[in-house]
Design brief:
The complex is a heterodimer of chains A (423) and B (295). Chain A is of the alpha+beta class. Chain A has two domains: 179 residues, D-Maltodextrin-Binding Protein, domain 2, CATH 3.40.190.10; 187 residues, Periplasmic binding protein-like II (D-Maltodextrin-Binding Protein, domain 2, 3-Layer(aba) Sandwich). Chain A has 19 helices and eleven strands. Chain A has a six-stranded mixed sheet with strand order 2-1-3-10-6-11. A three-stranded antiparallel sheet of chain A has the order 8-7-9. The relative contact order of chain A is 0.15. With 295 residues, chain B is mostly helical. Chain B has two domains: 74 residues; 217 residues, MetI-like (MetI-like fold, Orthogonal Bundle). Chain B is 75% helix and 0% strand. Chain B is built from 13 helices and no strands. In chain B, helix 3 runs parallel beside helix 6 and helix 3 packs across helix 10. Chain B is flat. Classes of the chains: A alpha+beta (423), B mainly alpha (295). At the A-B interface, helix 1, strand 2, helix 4 and helix 13 of A face helix 3, helix 5, helix 6, helix 9 and helix 11 of B.
Chain lengths: 423, 295
């Protein structure tokens, strides 16, 4: 082949391909059906059958609508969604966590579900969870599925050390010191890669609210929280790597038998059983240590409708269908999640049949916490900056770089500054 | 028998030689020890991945202290990868995208590099410097504009959309230009005197002489395309068009993570990269060195 011909062929193929692609008409303009694009977070392949059959059922009930399902990796949803929003090709519905949902809501990028859903439909959702999807008085998402933080203990470690299970978070440092002294193992691994530290602040009596000056932080509650974390660190209850590693490290350490307890969602039991089958015999599942003291946290996954959608009414209709009590129970039977509607939370599926079944017990504890729980960390404006300041000063107090009093003052001062600059 | 003074100097020489041999052997030994240690550091994570992929379901993969050798080694996890995912579809997609992207990159980069290296025209240096300066921009910065262009061209969710960003790269043009610069001008001049045109010179004279650089560029492009996660993630929605990195990522489910399966999938997906490197190793090393020394 001559060089001219080679170059001409290569160039022509690319140009023709580009022209062909550019001249293609968008599929929904030649079709009389409305296509809704629905993005989920890593539900495939485990929920393929459930999601596809639900979509088929919805399409049968609504012949003018087709639903295109796209499943996106958990860790990469934000990047993909931001790119598609920037290019004007956002999906009609996206499954997002509350932090990222609220970030988009800050930019007024999401539709308000109260404008499209009936009051009767809204009343079906867990009120505390529904209200947590609100920023500046406007709602931005519909809760789809929930999870609660329960305690998973390595019974063998507690028995070897002769230590009791903690009845509250603040008991962990004392028990941790005993375990460290007796058998040289760590007890707990608090994670700083999410909102856990701020949730613990609320669990220990604090308050966080967008409506209060400086988000409502109080000196006494911050001081109590910093004492808790400093005690954890100084007592040897936690490994030094807590300052640089996140929840995944906690799970890895627990699976290696080197950590006495894990505060996590019930779905982690299955992961532990797959990766560390022998450890399952030693596992004891209990409610969160602070569950008896009142407030417990609910983690929610939302369905949101970006403002770029051309079919907000159809999108919310599909959202209401997917988050209906019936569909939620079907989903909870497939994977370890909990429903966000009040009626499905009462379903007999959540009754414990076998007290020795760790999965059933974990589900029962989770559902009990959710029925009376709350979303402890509301959507916050400037969430990333607030979280960074919170963790920075907590770390400095743990390391002894700042006294508790100084760390408390600086943390509150930083939050006040962020509050003033961001609004 | 030699006289005592000669014998003594002979023994002296033998003693020195054996001492030199010992020193040289111990140096060699030390060199190998260091090389083996460095090799272990680099190959360690891969071997650990292999060990995890070969552990049976009854073994604790997070055991402390860690156990490198599986108790009952199994290939079952590799089989399970094929059951869990349409692995062959992802593999075929990756091969298709990589083959086209590598071919386009070799043709277009060498075409662009030839005039930049061997022809004189106004603005040549400005064009070259502009091209090179794009290398300092991280992909994350260009991702959204690139995606926007791809969407406007209708390339969203197409293989062509996957290929085009890799079809001609600034690095490729730079590497090929450096390589063309090493070829003596006389060869080109004699070809011109024979009445051969520029494109024919590029094809018949220049390209055969820069095969090592072409092989190097092919390997770099292949590794880049094969392992690319971010761009396919952004541009592809349809799971039947996923390339291997996207596909293997699906093995780490949201509700249960089976690390044996993830490790087996990762091992399977990197085998082609190793094979390509091994086959092109000879060209690759000399090509990389040539590009490095000629300015």
């Amino acid at each position: 082949m001559t060089p001219k011909r080679l170059a001409a062929i290569a160039g022509s193929v690319l140009i023709l391909a580009l022209l062909w692609q550019a001249n293609k008409e968008p599929p929904d303009e030649i079709s009389d059906k409305t296509e809704i694009e629905f993005w989920t977070m890593q539900l495939s392949p485990i929920l393929d059958e459930y999601i596809l059959s639900s979509i088929a059922e919805y399409e049968q009930q609504n012949p003018g609508i087709t639903v295109k399902w796209v499943d996106v990796a958990w860790a990469d949803m934000e990047r993909k969604l931001l790119a598609s929003v920037a290019a004007g090709t956002a999906p009609d519905i996206a499954n997002l966590n509350p932090q990222f949902s609220s970030k988009l809501a800050e930019f007024n990028a999401l539709e308000d579900p109260t404008s499209f859903l009936s009051p009767e439909t809204i009343a079906t959702y867990h009120p505390a969870v529904w209200d947590s999807n609100r920023l500046d008085g406007k709602y931005f998402g519909v809760p789809w599925y929930l999870s609660a933080t329960i305690a998973i203990y390595n019974q063998a470690i507690f028995e070897q050390a002769g230590a009791p299970y903690p009845d509250s978070l603040e008991e962990i440092p004392k028990i941790g010191a005993q375990i460290q002294e007796s058998i040289g193992k760590y007890t707990y691994f608090p994670s700083f890669d999410g909102g856990e530290a701020m949730e613990n602040y609320v669990l220990l009596g604090g308050e966080i609210s967008n409506d209060l000056p400086g988000y409502g932080l109080s000196n006494a509650s911050i001081d109590r929280l910093l004492r808790y974390y400093s005690d954890l660190y100084e007592s040897g209850s936690v490994p030094p790597s807590v300052l640089i590693e996140g929840h995944q490290k906690a799970i890895d350490l627990f699976q290696s038998g080197e950590l006495a307890m894990l505060l996590t969602g019930m779905q982690m039991l299955r992961t532990i059983e797959i990766n560390s089958p022998q450890l399952m015999e030693d596992i004891v599942v209990k409610p969160h240590p602070n569950a008896d003291e009142g407030r417990t946290n609910i983690a929610a996954m939302n369905l949101v409708v970006p403002k770029q959608t051309r079919y907000p009414r159809d999108a919310f209709d599909f959202v209401a269908f997917m988050s209906s009590p019936e569909k939620q129970i079907e989903m909870a039977k497939e994977v370890p999640i909990l429903p966000s509607t009040l009626r499905s939370l009462q379903n007999e599926f959540f009754q414990v049949v076998d007290q020795n079944d760790k999965y059933e017990m974990a589900r029962a504890f989770s559902i009990a916490q959710i029925r009376r729980g709350d979303v402890l960390l509301p959507p916050l404006e400037n969430y990333s900056r607030l979280r960074t300041a919170f963790i920075l000063h907590t770390h400095r107090a743990m390391l002894g770089e700042l006294s508790r009093e100084d760390a408390t003052d600086r943390l509150i001062s930083d939050w006040k500054n962020i509050s003033r600059s961001g609004k | 028998m030699p006289p005592p003074n000669i014998r003594s100097s002979y023994e002296h020489i033998v003693f020195h030689r054996s001492r030199e041999n010992m020193v040289s052997a111990s140096r060699m030994f030390l060199r190998y020890v260091i090389l083996i240690l460095v090799a272990c550091v680099f190959i360690g994570p891969f071997l650990w991945l292999l060990s995890t992929a070969m552990k049976s379901g009854s073994e604790n993969i997070f055991q402390y202290p860690p156990e490198f050798i599986p108790h009952s080694p199994t290939l079952e996890n590799f089989v399970r990868v094929f059951d869990a995912l349409p692995f062959l579809t992802y593999f075929a997609n990756s091969v298709f995208v990589a083959a086209i992207a590598v071919s386009c990159n070799l043709v277009f980069c060498s075409l662009a590099a030839y005039p930049l290296a061997r022809m004189s025209f106004r603005g040549k240096n400005v064009i070259f410097l502009t091209l090179i300066s794009t290398m300092i921009l991280p992909f994350q910065l260009m991702m959204i504009p690139l995606y926007s262009i791809a969407v406007n061209l209708g390339l969203n969710n197409t293989f062509l959309g996957l290929i085009i960003p890799h079809a001609c790269t600034a690095f490729g043009v730079f590497l090929m230009r450096q390589s063309f610069l090493t070829i003596p001008h006389q060869l080109e001049e004699s070809a011109l005197m024979e009445g051969v045109n520029r494109l024919q010179i590029w094809w018949h004279v220049m390209l055969p002489l820069v095969k090592p650089a072409l092989a190097t560029l092919a390997v770099f492009t292949f590794i880049g395309v094969w392992g690319d996660f971010l761009w396919p993630l952004i541009i592809i929605d349809d799971q039947t068009k996923f390339t291997l990195p996207l596909g293997v990522n699906r093995l780490a489910g949201a509700f249960a993570k089976d690390w044996r399966l993830v490790a087996a999938g990762a091992i399977l997906s990197i085998i082609p990269t190793i094979v390509v490197f091994l086959f092109s190793q000879r060209f690759f090393i000399s090509g990389a060195l040539k590009g490095a020394v000629k300015g």
